Amino acid sequence: MKRLLKKIHLFYFLFCILCLFILFWPFYYLFSRNPRFYSVLNVFRTIHSFMASALSGIFFRFEIEQKLDKKQTYIFCANHTSNLDILAFCLLARGTYHFMGKEELMRNPVLGIFFRTIDIPVNRESKIGAFKAFKRAADNLDQGMSLIIFPEGKIDNSYPPVLQEFKNGPFRLAMEKGIPIVPVSIQNLWQIMWDDGVKYGSRPGIVDIYVHKPILTNILANQSDENLRDRVYAIINSKL
How far apart are CA 20 and CA 177, in angstroms? Predict the structure, then answer.
């Protein structure tokens, strides 16, 4: 019975996401046409995320170690256990931000419009594709767009999830550009909905997210991107 209820909740949650997407689609289409309007586009993403999660009884509780500067460009790095991670960051991030994610998201009926415009798709099997994706991300950072990335590269098959090895890309980028990194520990979202929810469904609940203080990469000249990667890994893992 419990499993059936979780399946019903998943369908209800997806129904909320889709209905709100249809409602907001004209705004998404309009504001995704020109990078000048990306900050407005993100306002609608925030509203969409809040309404869908609230209607589904899913609420996000953020514990922020140090207040973030709304005018500062950041690279947010977090563990990745659920498709709901995207909603969490739409509520956390402010201003002009964008995601980097797998290329398959371009075919997603909801996320596709974003990964064809503001967000960056990555072909994980192609070194050239990854290079082009990080080149675009570097250009966006230069324009003041914060980057949200899950350095594990994918949601692991293990359940309960275990933090997997991080890719080097975002840490090399942070060192080159001197952009502060914000480690984020998404603590229990996998218990609300793991992966896409197909296997175990979803349920209402409160998601706890710990936002660590930013790491200032412009003062780490003597460190390698591997050192930074390992440091961020340890910080995120400390709150899981």
Answer: 37
Closest CA to 196 of 162, 155, 161, 236: 155
Kindly tell me the burial class for residue 169, based on how many C-beta atoms sit within 10 Å of its own C-beta (0-12, 13-18, 19 or more).
buried
Total-model pTM: 0.94
Q: What are phi and psi of 212, to 5 degrees?
A: -75, 160
CA distance 210 to 183: 9
Tell me the CA end-to-end span of the chain in Å, nearest whole number. 29
Residue 191 token pair: 């218990």
Q: Which is higher by pLDDT, 125 or 4? A: 4
Structure confidence by residue, pLDDT tens digits, 4-62: 999 999 999 999 999 999 999 999 999 999 999 999 999 999 999 999 999 999 999 99
